[in-house]
Amino acid sequence: MRRYSALLATAALAASVLLVPNAAHADVKDAFLTVDFDQLARDRVAKLSLKAKSASGVTSVRGFMRYQELTAEPYASFDLTRTEGTDNDGVWQAEYRPDIKIRPGYTYVDVVVTTADGLTRTLRRLMDDCYQTTISGFTYAPSVIDADHPDVTMSGRVLVQKVREDAPEPMAGGTIRVGTDVETTTGGDGSFTVKSGGVPYASVTAPRQGLLCPAYKSASLIVTKQATEITAQIKPASTVAPYTRMAVDGKVLRYGAAGLVPAANAQVQVEVPSALMDLGGGIGTSVRTAADGTFHTYFTAAREAGKSGTVTARVLDEGFYVGSQTSVGSLNIRNISEITAFDAYPEPLAYGDSVIVNGTLSVKPDFTNVSDLPLVLEFSPDGKTWTTVQTQTLSRPGNFYFNGLTPLNKDGYWRARYAGSALNTPAAGPADYVDVKYRTQWYDFNASPEPVKKGGTITVKGLLYRFRDVAGPGPNAPVYVYFKRAGSTTWTQMAATKTDSSGWFRKTFKASADGYWMASYKGSGSYFPSDTPADYVDVR
Q1: pLDDT value, residue 406
Q2: Among 22, 71, 86, 378, which is most buried by a count of CB atoms within 10 Å?
């Protein structure tokens, strides 16, 4: 005769056997409760047996039946009678016949022991009242699978036995499940055929249905694993600020029958050194690949700047795949330095003058309150090779200013640079180009004679000077002569000419009206522009 107790029904049920806590415990010790329930017995009687010891003596033992929920009101209660020993060391027993048609499935059996000191202690067992279900004639094919051939076809019959003396009967129209996605229905003779695929195992379940117990069958498969290759990248960068949201993207390939192909559903573990990951902000570093072999996971960088380490992505050696791994790269947690609002001026700059530079150095998030930040001002004629011009040390991140530099004699690029530290990233500001030009100036400008007779000749002349290393006349420079009639606000160009080899220009005009004369040199890529003062001529 085969008998089942609720304690032995399943490992899960055995784990649920507990001593129920009370506000005050009786002096019961060495207490043990069994509920013996034979699911195939015709009478279907549950037999309760309690063995217990008590120094003060057991005064009563009472049983309570609760259907499916621990907090449910008891649907039955009864006394257990002492059948052996004494009130101080004895055995108490009772029988109860549940009704499977009214309450199929789990019932919690609570036994409350009261002792002479007026206190109680509760013990609990779980009983399963259902008709036994079995899967017979279970077959499957193939018995060897791999990632290219993962499908397994399983067949069998589901039978139900209510009483030991009666033969099992087919479960017609019952549910059969494979995993959580595939479901089929048994035929009139309880038979089924179902297919599983995509996973390195195969099993079928007849779930608990109505009065029937669940049943389960598993195929003993041999899995041929395939080698893998994994690639991965870390974003947004290898050096980041504390608390940066980091992403790891990659792909896993397997060596299948057709060569390297995507490895679907591979388990990937991204391993980040504990000093580099904020445990409170880490969302997860374990993920399975998609159908195309790609994966994506993320974590939050730690708070402490100055930490560095290597991040690794690893394919676990499980399922259809042999494990493999790759270095995602180094991760460095630093305060992020940046130079902004950088400006070198004036632009253009007069030859021999000094440039003025200002800007802002920021360090974020700066949990460490960095100080003593060495800042370098650099110059480059081509924007490639840089020379240090001046240095200063900022007590804290903020605005900086350079002035009083060596007088300039060439065009070029200017930038500020912070070398960084163990806690901070380096930073170089944007390069600002400053054009250096020579000054120019007019000498001896004159419009004459003054006064002049109407219809007479007016001569306009002047000398253009350029201030290079050695000042001197500006030869062959384009000159524009303008006239503004008395009472007008508009200048009119009257002529365009050039200076001669000595820097002089001379131009004559017919006198027609009173007004002002002026000459203008508009400058070039190397020289500043320069205008003469206006010279008034009275025409009579």
Answers
A1: 81
A2: 378
Query: Which residues is 298 bridged to in the sheet?
Result: 247, 284
Q: What is the pLDDT of residues 483-522, one digit of tens each?
A: 999 999 999 999 999 999 999 999 999 999 999 999 999 9
> d(Cα 366, Cα 38) in Å, to the nearest integer?
71
β-sheet bridge partners, residue 110: 64, 124
> Please, are residues 252 and 261 in contact by the beta-carbon 8 Å criterion?
no
**Strand 515-521 relative to strand 504-510: parallel, antiparallel, unpaired?**
unpaired
* Tokens, residue 449: 């004679």
Neighbour tally for 447: CB within 10 Å: 25
Assess whether pLDDT exceeds 80 at residue 376: yes
**What's the Cα-to-Cα distance from 526 to each of 28, 319, 374, rounded to whole Å?**
107, 74, 35
Instruction: Cite the residue boundaries of each domain of the chain with CATH code 2.60.40.730.
Output: 336-437, 439-537
> What CATH architecture applies to the domain 336-437?
Sandwich (2.60)
Closest by CA to 368, choosing from 333, 417, 412, is 333
- Give the C-alpha distances (Å, rounded to integers) separating 155 from 24, 29, 137, 138, 187: 55, 51, 8, 6, 12
Pairing of strands 222-223, 144-145: parallel
Reply yes or no on whether the pLDDT at 283 is more than 60: no
pLDDT in tens, 473-485: 999 999 999 999 9
What's CA 387's distance to the chain center, in Å? 41
d(CA 25, CA 2): 37
| Residue keyed to tokens 């070398």 | 419
C-alpha–C-alpha distance, residues 364 and 11, integer Å: 55
With a CB cutoff of 8 Å and minimum separation 6, the contacts of 288 are 265, 266, 267, 268, 295
The string of DSSP letters for 267-317 reads: EEEEE--GGGB-TTT--BSEEE--TTSEEEEEEEB-S-TT-EEEEEEEE-S
Closest by CA to 47, choosing from 58, 34, 59, is 34
Fold designation for 439-537: Immunoglobulin-like (2.60.40)
**Residue 7, CA atoms < 13 Å, CB-side half-sphere:** 13
* pLDDT(18) > 60: no
Read off the amino acid at residue 331.
L
- What is the distance of C-alpha 510 from the center of its chain? 82
Closest CA to 100 of 174, 37, 18, 169: 37
pLDDT value, residue 7: 31
Q: Find out whether the peptide bond into 475 is cis, omega within 30 degrees of 0.
A: no
* Superfamily of domain 6-129 in the CATH hierarchy: Macroglobulin (MG2) domain (2.60.40.1930)
> Residue 357, SS3?
strand
More confidently predicted of 19 and 181: 181
Look at residues 358, 465, 355, 359 and name the one whose alpha carbon lies nearest to residue 411. 355
CA 107, chain centre distance (Å): 46
Residue 111 in this model has a pLDDT that exceeds 70: yes
Could you count the other beta carbons within 10 Å of the beta carbon of residue 532?
A: 24
Question: The tokens 């015709």 sit on which residue?
Answer: 42
Task: Answer yes or no: CATH 3.40.109.10 is held by domain 228-333.
Answer: no
Predicted TM-score of the model (pTM)? 0.67
